[in-house]
Amino acid sequence: MNGQDLPKVLDRIEPSLAQYGGLTRAILLQLVREAQEKGYAIITNYAVAGVSSIGVPIRSASGALIGAISVSAMTERMRPREAMVVQTVKREVALLEAALQASG
User: Fold this and answer.
1) pLDDT tens-digit map of 65-92
2) Which of 24, 31, 52, 84 has the fewest CB atoms inside 10 Å of its own CB, making it the most exposed?
3) Exposed / middle / buried, residue 10 (Cβ in 10 Å: 0-12, 13-18, 19+)
């Protein structure tokens, strides 16, 4: 999503955010910034209490976002494995992107 679309999307979803563990527009904006910096998203205790999820974007050859792979687990299991999970999912995304490019 480009930066121009983000405020419109946030305006549309903001009334529903509180039902996700007290998620707010400000928190979501911070999570988006962190995801952009890291190259992957992680969210903990918002969608489901006690659960962490990591998502890695899948991009086309032109760089367009075409999907994502995400992994969720209980937070106490995910936290100590975050780096390994991110590395594993990024590796699989790279293989998938390469296969997509090879298939034309």
Assistant:
1) 999 999 999 999 999 999 999 999 999 9
2) 84
3) middle
Residue position matching structure tokens 């999907």: 67
Mean per-residue pLDDT over the chain, rounded: 93
Give phi and psi for 77, each to the nearest 5.
-90, -35
Long-range contacts, stretch 56-65, CB < 8 angstroms, 24+ apart: 56/86, 56/89, 56/90, 56/93, 57/93, 58/93, 58/96, 58/97, 58/100, 59/97, 60/97, 60/100, 61/97, 61/100, 61/101, 65/1
How many angstroms separate the CA atoms of 73 and 53, rounded?
7
